[in-house]
Design a protein that fits this description.
Four copies of one chain form a homotetramer. Chain A is α/β, with parallel strands linked by helices. The first copy, chain A, folds into two domains: 9-138, NAD(P)-binding Rossmann-like Domain (Rossmann fold), CATH 3.40.50.720; 144-316 and 362-383, Dihydrodipicolinate Reductase, domain 2, CATH 3.30.360.10. Helix content of chain A is 35%, strand content 22%. The first copy, chain A, is built from twelve helices and 14 strands. Chain A has helices at residues 22-32, 47-56, 68-77, 94-102, 118-130, 145-155, 184-189, 192-195, 200-216, 309-312, 325-344, 358-376; strands at 9-14, 36-42, 84-87, 107-111, 135-138, 162-170, 222-228, 239-245, 251-257, 266-273, 276-281, 287-292, 297-301, 382-383. In chain A, strands 13-12-11-10-6-9-8-7-14 form a nine-stranded mixed sheet. In chain A, strands 2-1-3-4-5 form a five-stranded parallel sheet, with helices on both faces. In chain A, β8 and β9 (251-257) form a beta hairpin. In chain A, α1 (22-32) packs across α11 (325-344), α4 (94-102) packs parallel to α5 and α9 packs across α12 (358-376). The interface between B and D is medium-sized, with 12 and 12 residues.
Chain lengths: 386, 386, 386, 386
């Protein structure tokens, strides 16, 4: 997976200055397989902070910007300008920033959700369609090899006809009103102006939703949601209960919570069909349980006996040598690199290279919007119209 | 827990003839701690089958009956007649059988659900109230020691104010239409005439509901349900998705399924409060996870360091020597024996002796009824009125 | 497994009075499947204690004895005398008690180890051979269904040629010198006069050894041991490290400890062959891991898909309904009942009925003796001569 | 942990050309936290292979060498020459290569074991002592944060006085004679000329040994070993059973195997003291079990509640976001970077910066030598003289 003899892709970053969490994760992910060189950035709207962050990273000060619009313009004008940009700001800036780069032919690797609102998402999808550049959304958890295998098994019919999808994402870091005592990561996530109409459902519910859609290759046709805010004074939901129906007859449940005391990053997906079930937990990501109906359960391991070529493409080290969250994230960057390199050569992206794009991003926003509307209507079933 | 110097309680049984599953379980449970002597039975409505079953069990042929009404009458007339009866028939016979014994002052130990219909349950609750005899419902899973401890921890406020209850009960034995190929255990469970209006939701959903209620000491005020039948031709639901709300502000989700391929007897309860969470799985019943918010998770084990006196009352062997389903069931019988013995002495049942009775039985039927109604109304929130 | 139409076997007990642990376990085990009736006992050498224990159990006072020799004599003389006796005293009394009953044609079900010393074991084996009665040793852990299956898989060659056996039994209840502060269960176990020359190695090392031998169908030809006493003042070993060699070329390690802080009853067996491995843990006894070389690991569950008929014979309830320690113990009693019933009919014991007898008991004492000798010789390899 | 504002350390590599496994791992590890720039290499003794490997990595062809001696000489002469070198060749080349760089003041980051033979190790230790440059050995598994925490807990006395250390490392990739069918990774490992006198014991036994020593802060004073070769025709051991004694009175067992069918990379360490135990498994590395004697087991998680500052230094992402093998390896490189940077500033290495050096490397060779000698002497106890 390590780069072999080709040049590194020149990468810029918007957001992700000192103290930001996800920016550093994107940088590690970009670096892991050595297929990118970070050469420019607009790390903060504070000039001082952007500058110091750029210096930390050893960037040429001329290529450290305070405005992403200026960055897009300048970099597009350079012969050695960036070929791709990572957007890692709070949600409400995704749309505007992405537009600047896409319209200038610079590929966008955007943290999820695609945008803060459904309207923005529809507009951005249009921009992306009209641009020659790629739009890639970093839904981290689909970067895990065993999720790749799970999707492949479903598609190959190994579970028979799907009946049930049970997905949950439980955390506890918002159990108390930490946003009121200076927790920066919490503050913007519970602010509708920066996050959009969904709190927990937008922040992590969308990950759960995307995971379920990716593995089942299906999107619910309708849902009934009960969003709730447990922490007094919080303005967005911190827990979400959702029931789902699919046109195929499949049914599902989704639970997302940031007040589930004792849960760290408990994303789990279970899928059941007429011929068997799959079970995967993000906190034990190197294992995929396959339980064929009427036979002993099979414990499939990353790169182990029984794991597939599709999963193997995303592995660096042998079975029993755990890969984790950063490797999953790096897989997104490596898939993006493969797509960008194909694009540069004027080729179609090979079928085995998979990533989330505008369709997945739009589905996420449609999902959040439907959950919010259903919940406001006391759980009425609401159709998802992509 | 073994009987010490007191006489065994004389026990009869209705149902549970050859080939029945749950009848044998009740007998083992009654025998384990040696506090009962099985002396009479009406094992089947087939005279031949009742007789042979009685002979298998070494009963006096004079005390093997074909009609439970006759059994109640005859046993009540004997000076050495049964003091208690176990009712282990299909659901639709519970009400009529229980009435015969209760009205004659014979204690009833009844398999769940209490009755097939809510109307029957309300009527039987009235009969029980008017009778001097006890009515005890065998909700197996609350017989586990670690569930006793869980309830005690909740009651003691160790989790803070409760916020969430997530309960699930997933099996796969009805994945295929086995009721059409002679599986007796399946056939009556999917027959509305014998089971009532709930299929999976009645058969195992009620266990999950009872478990949640027992541990949280609370009953939802309303629910929204999506019952579904996946197997063509089946007349009752085989999967249930339910969202729940409580007057306290607590929220919950319940999932019950008998078509979750690869699941054996996957009953799991998680409860989350402001100060911590609990997590218990029936397939690993000797362990209770306690996750205090902001501290390392604690793995509490049956009879182990950190387990409580309330749990210890229900244990026979030291930590690390697994107790299981039969021991949990036997705990119900031992609690029943303690209650009966107190009753015989004219004493109140000691506070530490806990068992499900008509209130819990009625709650179960109210739950099933609400699920069925909500689902028929496309998931409208329906109030639970006990 | 429940008795069907045959009479209960009349059972006596030696040892197991009030406060004894293992006596109550034997009684539950005997009762579980209803194939025995406890009718006589010599529960203690204290007349008062034996009497009160008998009364607790509802026995006829005439059949409660103070001397096991008297008991054997009296019971042998009665037409309704006991057919079998459970011996559950401290180790040093096993030989004398067993002899009294065997020589009178009464079957013996004896707690392990067979005797306190190797000399006694050889002598008792001779007595048993000469008696028409059966001698059955209760090595609890081989009563688990998944162990039955493990042995069957090994015998069928599913693992290929065996190479390695790694077995361990770790407890922590002797971490501190509890024997000095009145812990009765501890006191006799660390007393050479009551236990024999092995402490931990005799008490639980023999269980680990028996488990390994049962599953591999092999006995080591030589071993090298490092026994150690960690707790000051203790007179017998509380930790044992053992390396083993087999004539077949197989190698093994055995670790037994009663000072492994944090371990409850951690008996685990792993067996590896050229074609795969097995892994079983007593604290999770319903699961047997089968890891075929070059394929995904298979999680076999008691009574579940992939479990064998041999295991199924020892099950009472379906997969997912955990059975535990008491059920494993009850399986020993049910196998004993099957053997005794065959014996009474003059038939050979059916091949599927398996239990430990004098050969296994003798092997255990040979093992303890070899460990003690090797350790005294600073770990020299010592041959096991059965 | 990401580099902040300081220049990257200029790094070279010896070994690790195309198709090598561990070379790529070292490169990812060096890259992850962005504190190194790979600028030179001698990737193979084949000129063609070294050149193409350098090209893959985008190196200046002038700095791609065929001889490590030449590389050391040329790089030492450059003003922008490498400051450190990673040595990732087969074992028998470690000593000669390390010497070239150490004597020229270039820091050495060397894959384990330090050398192929004890003699070489003693000589190299002398060279390192006389050099001003650092010698850092990459014992991967001590790079895991929870191992750092384990060592800290032991040192702080949280387990009381240590009694037992049980360590095992089980793999199955040499179950069959894969070295005879072209498996390059296998071929050199089973060749005494390239690996030294230990096969499995040297390849992975040393990891297990180092892990135990690191956490317990102790080295055994003597050991008794039973090395064995199961696969016909193999020239080095593929399984090792070892018993250990410590001057403190502690005892231990070590099992290393490469023929344990079904095991992937099963490195597990358990340590028991008078006050509690620790349990850690490499395949689930984000969890450290702490079992205080007489209290509920505590599940400590990387970066989670209850994890220590010492562990936190080695973490990049929050609890519940698994870090794995590559992150552990990167921690070694980051600790090396911290040591090198301190060295460059003429400062002592801060106490919290920990890494294995010549002492640990020498201990590993002493261990292998003792195992081989003990085993040849039929398991005689052999003293470890460091």
């Amino acid at each position: 997976m390590e780069r072999q003899g080709t040049d590194r892709i020149r990468l810029g970053m918007v957001g992700g200055g000192r103290d930001a969490f996800i920016g550093a994760v994107h940088r590690i992910a970009a670096r892991l397989d050595d297929r990118y060189a970070l050469v420019a950035g607009c790390f903060s709207s504070s000039a001082e902070k952007s500058r110091s962050s750029g210096a930390d990273l050893g960037l040429d000060p001329d290529r450290v910007y305070v405005s992403f619009a200026e960055m897009a313009e300048c970099e597009a004008a350079r012969s050695d300008g960036i070929e791709a940009v990572s957007i890692v700001t709070p949600n409400h800036l995704h749309a505007a920033a992405a537009r600047e780069f896409l319209t200038r032919g610079i590929h966008v690797i955007c943290d999820k959700p695609m945008t803060a609102t459904l309207e923005e998402a529809r507009a951005l999808a249009k921009v992306a369609t009209e641009s020659d550049a790629l739009f890639i959304l970093t839904h981290t958890y689909t970067g895990y090899p065993m999720i790749r295998q799970a999707g492949e098994m479903v598609a190959a019919g190994e579970l028979g006809a799907l009946r049930l999808v049970q997905v949950e994402y439980a955390q506890d870091w918002l159990t108390e009103p930490v946003e009121q005592s200076g927790a920066k990561q919490a503050a913007w996530r519970v602010d509708p102006a920066q996050s959009g109409a969904g709190g927990c459902i937008g922040d992590i519910g969308t990950h759960a939703f995307n995971l379920a859609c990716t593995v089942t290759r299906a999107i619910p046709s309708a849902l009934s949601a009960d969003l709730h805010t447990f922490v007094p004074g919080r303005r967005l939901d911190d827990n979400a209960h959702v029931m789902m129906r699919y046109d195929s007859g499949m049914r599902g449940m989704l639970w997302a919570s940031q007040v589930a005391a004792g849960c760290e990053n408990g994303l789990r997906l279970r899928v059941f069909g007429t011929a068997g079930g799959l079970d995967w937990s993000q906190e034990d990501p190197n294992v995929l349980w396959h339980r064929p109906y009427g036979a002993a359960g099979r414990r499939l391991t990353r790169a182990g006996a029984g794991s597939s070529a599709a999963a193997g493409r995303l592995c660096r080290v042998p079975a029993g040598h755990p890969e984790g969250y950063l490797e999953a994230f790096a897989n997104l960057y490596s898939e993006a690199a493969a797509a960008i390199e194909a694009h540069h050569k004027g080729q179609t992206v090979p079928a085995e290279v998979q990533y989330a794009g505008t369709a997945e991003g739009l589905a996420g926003l449609v999902f959040v919007d439907a959950c919010v509307r259903s919940s406001r209507q006391n759980g009425d079933w609401v159709a998802l119209e992509i």
